Structure formats: structure tokens, C-alpha cells
Write a sequence for this structure.
């Protein structure tokens, strides 16, 4: 009612209203107990409570725009290689105060326990982190790969019941099985639907859109062009336009947004999201950057911000809490320039970023980051490597089932390559632009090692390796040299997980990821620096696939051919050819 | 996927898309198991399954528009004086397939049991009926009036837990108490908020908007002009534009919609609703009429329909089920002309209205209407009337506290009228344009009778009476003649509740409302006919207040003065003056 003074008054900025998609003249936001108490014309508090200046704090922010904190409707924190607490720092610097996180990477390694560790991490983080419960762990089955986790329908139900943060079912990745009526897939969908929880989607291909909708899926972040975006909207899905480093194939926003700007669809059910981000890309191409991409593509300034705040809150039914500057909402606020670049961020009424720098209260919070249990630090249980990491040299002529890299790098081509007998491997490698690839089971279950050949990967010498081999997260190593490949493997064993680039017997770059073999336990700037250095070494080694693309080589749900710890597998045929077949 | 034939194909109409606010070229809707299976270009099924014509039904609806059934976000079914099953018929004729109903009238009479009877009625009705749990029963307290119900916070919590239909807390009418931090009011709000359920509002006055929002209220249907509508939107509330018989003050849509059409607010959080409707007005001014009003005020044709379908579904987080024509949604559909007049309605894939007529399946459903328990038929427990219904004639000069009717009829003025001694009442009545009014406690609790005087009510002779005296629903009778007043009371006693018009010892019109003294147990056309006849007699008697306005005379939460079974009460002062005070 404006009868008593609030704790804090943030005064003088214009208001970016996500409720009405307008910019309103100078306002002030009254904050009490971490929430917005009222929004008034600028100067109201000073006039009303003129004799009581000491009763409340005033922060003068004239000249800018005040807006609600950004709400990212779909993100995998693990992709940043950071813990939730560390991720919070990067997010807040970008004006993001809420994320809906699908922690299916750690679930693939540590099962439901990993999801719960991450939820504890999330509760400690100075960021609103909601869970979209991982729905497709493992991505396929133990017939094709060895994963650490197996989220059954019952375990998923239990996560919903134990964690109020679990507000939706995460992207249902096995859309082909969903469309085919697979029993386990639908039992998992039912866990969400019977609790009235929304279901997030992951669908490639217009022919699957209606079947997904009929199965209860109500969003997508995979609309890659205007036609499929339009299809999704007409099939009742909220469309999350995904923006990301334009050097990657994940930056689909500019095409998908044309469903609105060219085909005339209403933007009311359109959001923006990040999905996956390296630590350094997160600082360069965060949610704020994606919002600016939407503006550049034709959305009005307030509408672009709404698509990154109120609309995602509405999608999850949390618009009473988040996504707008109104009484009763969390005081999660951002001060922007007219360029939509965040200058300062408030989280629950506390200024955590000021003039693009972390403030003392945030420093304090980040010094108290969640510590993962010991078990999380011992997930990389590799076999003792006794035999070679490269394949045996064929003694006779063979046809090799080779994985050929093709840009943009998601789909991998299946090449059947005739190899004549040769004196050593070098001749084959040079002639066919090949390198060795191996996947080592790392969950301590089978100790299996699978061998393969990569074509057009571009590696000039040495080896690269990673324990973030999607989705089962076995260790993948590629190289031209047996000794360097070994060194790469032993380096990651010693680091308890990570990624490294090795050249001539030397580790030239590495990022230690000791938590589940997926996450660093350092703060965001440290991880970003290490990642930048590693990516430079990676590119210098000549790799045509970026690090994140390399990690997808074992992902047995994307065409045409992949390699897991169990060997080669073709998609969607799901056949398991040997590396070498007798030449016909 | 379109691989197997559906049960039913509705083909040839253009599609009104509420998801993108566009009209799409000719489509066909495939229906299976009562839900939309797919939406395809018209003619697809005939081509795909050409050899299997008998496998599925085809309904050709060329020339029209197919749209989702309307979703009314705020309605009191009791205002129609019909049961839920009977209400369904009128709703379906109007293209409405879902309502969010606040049954606070029957709660005021029968407590939680009444709400539960109505929920059972709703489950039997061929209409999606959700409950917004009555939040303010009684409207004030036993100090001011005697009600039959008392919905405590615990009872409200139990309704949420027992009934999945209970998706929100109904309009919190005591907005002054809410703003003042009243303990019981906030305990009731907490029942919804802690379950993640939205809270509906009822606020008059711009100074209460922010306080309501801060208390968790996230909608309004009481925005009466563009400025307060704009305030509500900026305070994060969904705005339900209320349309109704333009002869009543409830038709606030044309002014409130100007927040969008003149002030430039986005319409994305704007809905339309009906709130209260007589049975006959429901057939004339239903949701479809309100949607057309929004179109006439400047909304595009698809946006107007969205405001009456998808937007309300989104407001309650049910857009995965309702509000659009997409796979997985209920096959609740309407066939419209370009004039937005519904021609045919499908409910769960069954055509229930065809060319504006009830079909055989609906006839069958309506013949199996829910029967309320015996207890519901014995709620009008009036005292034996021994004394007069008119006040004692004052022997000396007095000041009378008179209730003066003023148009538009919601607010009643407090008139202090000096009465000199007179030979009989007739002289006073004629000179001051007065009539008698009495309220009789009818819950069998106190047997109390309160007397008062009405000014400018216009009644020329006889009496009118009703057991629908908001919100405690005691019997209210007004008249010029003691005998006619008695006859009116005894008529309603015999009918076990209702409304009647009496003239010169004869009942000229009546509607029997034996269920809780609020509802007829007849079907919609019967109740509409009886209501029309009663309203004609009512107007012929000269009454300046319509029937529905008359029912509000005992509503002790609207200014300036009201009369309940306990006597006169002023609002908002909440004083209880006597009818006569000694003249000074």
C-alpha cells in the first residue's frame, strides 16, 4: 500500500515491462524481504518518507532501464564444465537470475544420486535453479553402450516427489521411440503428466512434431528453421529459440525466429534459451546476447527481453514468481543500457553485479560453494590399458567401417573404406586422412575398449581426449600416435576426468574435471581461462571438429555412425558393424 | 504420425489458430479417443486411407472456421440459477467447453459440502468444469450476517487436496482485509500459494492493486476502465475483460480493453470472461458474445478468440490440455462463421451442438443430470412469521437510516431521512418514494428478521422476494403491502427457495430454486423461459433495480449501506445503525 518504508529503493531508471511489452517512464522499485513490494514513479519514496532517510537504502540508477532478471528455459549446466555455484557467477554477470536445468549428463554418470548432488549444489548457488528431470538416461541402452546411470520411471517419479525444484520433465530425447509408442518412454512421460508437470521436447524432423505433441510434449529448443518452428507453434509447443556461438551449428535463432518475423506467427509463445555453453562462450554468448540476437532479428526491445524472462516463466507456470517487475515477485532485477547490455544485477534484492563486476556479497557467496561428496570425485574408473589403443594393423585387404567427419559436425558419415595390406599404419593414415579413435569404458563396469578410425578429423600430430563423451560419458581419445594417446588417457586418469591435448609426449593443455569426470570445481573465470587455452591448443592441433563436437562422437542417437565403448553403431539402423570386414 | 486412421475426421474448415493468432487455410482435425490426434491439410485422410472409407467417420464442415472451444476463466454457475449439468447445455450452445467456476454462493449456504455436491454435479456435466476454490465465505462475519457456510483455511486446504478439479483459489473478495494483513485472509491465501496454485482477485480501487499483487493475487475481472486495467497488467495480473448484458454495470469490457487499444499494452495476458449471468442472458450474452465484443473493440478475429480460449488456459497452466487445436489436446472444438457465431460444438470429440441445436448424444447426457442429495433441498429454513414484515410505524419524529437506490445499482446510498409522526405508513411511502424491505434469516439458525426502508426502488404495488440474497443468501423481500410481502415469503417457503413477484394477493411470476435455495433443477431452456417471464413481471412492477441488483442489497462488502438478517450495516465503516434514531 506504500504505507511503510521498504528495505531498499532502486530509483530513476525507466522500466522495461515484460507484462505489456513497453518501456515505461522513470520508475522506482521498492524491495522488501527480497521481493518487489511496489513499483512507483521515481522519487515517490523520498517524498513520502522525507524525514526518514536512514530507514531504507536508496540506489540511484538514473539513465538506464530496469528489467526482470533473465530466465533461461533450457540449459545443461554440465556443458559449462562448472558446478551450479560456479555457473551462477557467469549467469549473474549476464543478467540471468533463473535457469531451468536438465542435469542429464551427471545422471548418465552417477544416476539419480548425481542429479541430487547437483540439486544440493543448486540450492547453495546464488541463482534460481529449477530442475527439468532428466528423462532419457541412458540415451539408448546397455546393448549399445555402458553408462553409469539408468533413470527408470520410478526413479524419475521419486525425483519429482522429493524435490520441489523439479518442475518439468526434461527433454525427451528418444523421440523416435516416443512416436513408436515405446513402453518405457511413455511410462516416463506418464510420471510427469500424471503430476500435471509439463514435458520438454527434443525432436528432429517435421514428421515427429505431431507425434511428440500427441505424447504430451509442449516445447522445443530444436527448431532449426522457420517452417519447423511454425509447425511446433501450431502443434501447441512453446518454441525456445536457441542462440549460441555463431561458429557452432547450435545458433538456430536467426532462422527459427522467421516463423514470427516472416510467417506472421504471434510471438506470445516464443522464448529464447542457451542450451549448451562452454565456460568461455557463456561469458561471451550468454542469455543477454541471445536476447539481443532476437532484437536484431526484428523483435522490439521489450518483446525480446520478455522472450528471455516472462515467457519462460509462463511456460513453466511460474509467472507469479519470476519474469516481471511487480509486487510479490522475487527482486531479481537487471539494470541495462538501451543497448540491452546488463550493467548490474540484483538477486533477491541484493546487488550481486555492479558495473559488470562481482560485488562483495556475491564474492562471499561464491566462496561458500557446495562441495560434492567424495564419491563424485571417483567416477573415472578406467581399465588398466595393456594392449594398444590403436587398432591392430590388418594383415590382409579389408573394408574398414570409418567415421567420416562432415561439417557442421553433428552428423557423422559412414564411410566403407578398402584398405590394402601395408607395412605400418602411417601409410593408411596419410593416404586416407585418418586418425585412430578409441572409447574406454570408464564407469568401472566392463573395462571395455573399442577401436575405430576417424576420417577428416584434421589432427596433425599427438592426441586429444575427453571424459565428456556424450551421453554415457566414457573416455574418448583420438590420435595419430600410440604413445601420445596413452599419455592423454593416463593424464585424464590422473586428473580424475577432464579434457587434454597432447603433442610429442607433452600435455599442452588440459582442463581437470574431477566432479563426475564432467565438472571443474573452480570458479567461472578460472574454468573459462582454462577452456580458452584448451580450445586454442585444440584448434592448433588441426582438429576440424571443435571440442564440443568431438564429445558427440559417441552419442548413439545421431546419424550415421558413432563409436561407443561397445564398438561401432549405426543410427537410426542401430546395427553394430565390426571395424574391419573381409574385403569382398 | 498419421500411420493409422483416426476415429473421426472433421474436414474442410479454415483453422482459427490461437497459438499464432492467425487464420490458416483449409484443414482437417483428426480425432482419436476424444482428443486431437493431428491437424492436417483438408483432404489428407481421404487420400491416405482411400480404400478404408468405413474405418473412420468424416464430418465435412467446409466454409466455416474451426476453433478451440471457449474457456471461461471466471464464472459463478449459481448466478444462472442452474445446476452444472443444466449450465452445460447453455455453455455448449455458446461454444464454451470449459469453465473455471467459483461456487461461493452454494458455499455460503451449505459450506464445503455444497461445493462438493456441485463438484459431483460438474463431473456428471458434459463440460470441463474446474473449481476456483471459494476463498471468502462468509463475505464478512457472523457479527454482520448469518450465513450457512464458513470456509476456514483448513477446509479450503482439504478441498484442494481432495479434488483435482481445484486448480486455483477463487476471487479473494475481502481485498481491504488482505491489504491490511488480516490473519485469516492470509492463512487462506497461503493454502493456495504453498500448493503452487494461482490466486484469483476481486479488487475495487487502484490503491489496492499493488497490495493485492504483493499478497499473491494474479488476476482480476474487476478492471472497470483502461487505467485500472493497465495498473493490473503492470502489477503482473492477468486481466479478464468482463462482458455482460449492456443494461447492467457488469459490462466493463469496452472501457477496460482500451489499456490495449489505446495505451498500447500487449494483449498477451488479457482474457475475456462472463462472471455472472442469468439463465436467459447466458443464452444471449455468452462467452461467444463477449469474444465478439473484444473483436468489435479492436482485437483481431483470432486474437479475440484466443482471449477466450488459449489465454485463460495459459493463466491456469492448462494450455497443454485446452485452448488450442493441436495433438494431445481435448477435442473440444467449435465451428464458427466468419461472424464468430458458433454453429456447432464438439465436446471430447462428440458433436453436441449441430447448427445451433442440441444433438442426440447431448440430449442423452442431459437426461442423466446429477441429482442433488435430499439435504440440498431443505436449506430454506425460515422462521415462522408472527410479527409484521414492515417496520413499526414510529410514534414520534425520527431519523430513518434509509437505503437509497442509485444507478447503476451496485452502490447503495445511505440516506438519513426525517420522518414526522403520521397516521399510517402510506403517507411516508408516497412522500419519500419508499418501500419496505426485510431480510429473514433462512438457515434455521437465529430466525432473525431485520426491517428496513428502500428509497427509489420504484415498486408500484405488491412485493418481490428472493432467497438469493448475496452472499449469505438469506431471504430478502421488498414490498408496499404487508399481505403481499407475507405471500411472497410463504411462496418461497413452499418452493423451498426461489424468486417471486406478487401483486394484489397473486403470485404473478416465480422461479423455483429448490437446490440450496439457489438453483433450479430444470434444464437450461426451462430456467431461461421462467427467468424471462419473472424479469418481465419484475420490470412491470416498476422496480428500478433488476433482479440481480436486488439480490445484492444484503451484500455487506459494497458501499454505502446494506441490510442483512442482523440489520443495517454501513460499508466500509462497518457500523450497524438502527433503522430509526430519535430526531434531534
Amino acid at each position: 500500500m506504500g504505507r511503510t518504508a521498504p528495505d531498499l529503493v532502486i530509483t530513476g531508471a525507466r522500466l522495461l515491462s515484460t507484462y505489456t511489452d513497453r518501456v515505461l517512464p522513470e520508475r522506482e522499485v521498492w524491495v522488501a524481504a527480497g521481493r518487489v513490494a511496489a513499483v512507483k514513479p521515481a522519487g515517490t519514496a523520498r517524498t513520502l518518507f522525507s524525514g526518514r532517510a536512514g530507514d531504507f537504502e536508496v540506489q540511484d540508477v538514473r539513465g538506464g532501464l530496469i528489467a526482470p532478471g533473465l530466465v533461461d528455459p533450457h540449459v545443461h549446466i554440465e556443458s559449462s564444465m562448472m558446478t551450479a555455484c560456479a555457473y551462477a557467477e557467469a549467469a549473474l554477470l549476464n543478467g540471468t537470475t533463473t535457469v531451468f536445468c536438465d542435469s542429464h549428463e551427471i545422471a548418465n554418470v552417477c544416476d539419480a544420486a548425481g542429479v541430487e548432488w547437483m540439486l544440493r549444489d543448486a540450492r547453495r548457488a546464488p541463482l534460481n535453479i529449477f530442475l527439468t528431470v532428466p528423462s532419457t538416461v541412458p540415451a539408448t541402452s546397455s546393448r549399445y553402450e555402458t553408462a553409469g546411470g539408468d533413470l527408470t520411471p520410478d526413479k524419475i517419479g521419486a525425483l519429482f516427489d522429493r524435490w520441489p525444484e523439479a518442475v518439468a520433465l526434461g527433454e525427451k530425447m528418444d523421440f523416435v521411440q516416443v512416436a513408436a509408442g515405446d513402453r518405457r518412454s511413455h511410462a516416463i512421460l506418464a510420471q510427469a503428466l500424471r503430476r500435471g508437470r509439463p514435458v520438454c521436447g527434443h525432436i528432429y524432423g517435421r514428421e515427429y512434431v505431431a507425434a511428440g505433441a500427441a505424447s504430451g510434449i509442449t516445447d522445443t529448443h530444436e527448431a532449426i528453421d522457420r517452417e519447423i518452428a511454425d509447425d511446433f507453434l501450431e502443434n501447441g509447443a512453446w518454441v525456445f529459440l536457441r542462440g549460441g556461438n555463431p561458429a557452432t551449428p547450435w545458433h538456430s535463432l536467426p532462422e527459427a525466429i522467421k516463423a514470427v518475423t516472416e510467417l506472421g506467427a504471434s510471438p506470445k509463445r516464443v522464448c529464447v534459451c542457451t542450451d549448451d555453453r562452454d565456460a568461455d562462450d557463456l561469458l561471451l554468448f550468454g542469455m543477454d546476447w541471445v536476447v539481443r540476437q532476437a532484437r536484431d532479428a526484428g523483435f522490439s526491445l521489450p518483446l525480446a527481453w520478455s522472450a528471455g524472462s516472462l515467457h519462460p516463466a509462463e511456460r513453466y507456470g511460474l509467472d507469479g514468481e519470476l519474469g516481471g517487475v511487480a509486487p510479490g515477485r522475487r527482486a531479481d532485477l537487471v539494470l541495462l543500457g538501451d543497448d540491452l547490455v546488463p550493467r548490474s544485477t540484483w538477486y533477491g534484492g541484493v546487488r550481486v553485479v555492479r558495473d559488470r563486476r562481482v560485488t562483495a556479497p556475491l564474492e562471499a557467496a561464491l566462496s561458500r560453494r557446495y562441495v560434492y561428496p567424495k564419491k563424485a570425485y571417483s567416477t573415472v574408473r578406467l581399465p588398466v590399458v595393456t594392449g594398444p589403443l590403436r587398432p591392430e594393423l590388418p594383415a590382409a585387404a579389408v573394408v574398414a567401417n570409418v567415421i567420416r567427419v562432415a561439417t557442421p559436425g553433428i552428423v557423422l558419415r559412414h564411410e566403407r573404406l578398402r584398405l590394402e595390406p601395408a607395412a605400418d599404419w602411417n601409410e593408411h593414415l596419410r593416404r586416407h586422412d585418418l586418425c585412430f579413435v578409441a572409447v574406454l569404458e570408464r564407469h568401472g563396469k566392463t573395462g571395455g575398449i573399442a577401436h575405430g578410425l576417424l576420417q577428416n578429423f584434421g589432427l596433425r600430430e599427438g592426441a586429444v581426449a575427453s571424459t565428456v563423451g556424450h551421453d554415457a560419458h566414457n573416455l574418448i581419445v583420438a590420435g595419430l600416435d600410440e604413445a601420445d594417446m596413452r599419455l592423454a588417457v593416463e593424464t585424464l586418469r590422473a586428473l580424475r576426468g577432464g579434457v587434454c591435448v597432447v603433442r610429442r609426449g607433452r600435455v599442452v593443455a588440459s582442463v581437470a574435471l574431477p566432479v563426475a569426470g564432467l565438472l571443474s570445481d573452480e570458479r567461472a573465470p578460472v574454468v573459462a581461462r582454462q577452456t580458452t587455452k584448451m580450445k586454442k591448443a585444440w584448434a592448433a592441433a588441426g582438429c576440424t571438429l571443435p571440442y564440443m563436437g568431438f564429445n558427440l562422437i559417441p552419442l548413439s542417437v545421431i546419424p550415421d555412425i558413432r563409436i561407443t565403448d561397445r564398438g561401432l553403431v549405426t543410427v537410426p539402423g542401430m546395427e553394430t558393424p565390426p571395424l574391419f570386414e573381409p574385403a569382398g
